[in-house]
Amino acid sequence: MYVILVYDFGEKRVAKMLKLCRKYLNWIQNSVFEGEISEVRLHELLLFAKKFMKEEEDSIIIFKGRDVTWTEKQIVGKERSNIDIFL
Q: How far from 20 is each of 13, 25, 45, 54, 72, CA to CA, in Å?
């Protein structure tokens, strides 16, 4: 499935979340990731995140879709990471 993951973590935990998400998804903007991922790998990512997140302060929002073809993406300004070069 295709997901867009957005997070808002406290300053002391944000670097850990960035590092974790980069293992599973493509970094497209500060605290925003996208990519194809299985349910199992997404569940694994969330389990690791919950080990250091403070649920009363931090948040993760996940938008799910069947695949990227059902999503239209428009970029205005500089693109942080161009993932269109992958075959």
A: 11, 9, 7, 16, 26
Residues contacting 2, CB < 8 A, separation 6+: 34, 35, 36, 37, 64, 65, 66, 67, 68, 70, 71
Bigger pLDDT: 60 vs 79: 60
In CATH terms, the fold of domain 2-70 is Alpha-Beta Plaits (3.30.70)
pTM value?
Answer: 0.81
Residue carrying structure tokens 């992958």? 86
Residues near 12 by beta carbon (within 8 Å), at least 6 away in sequence: none
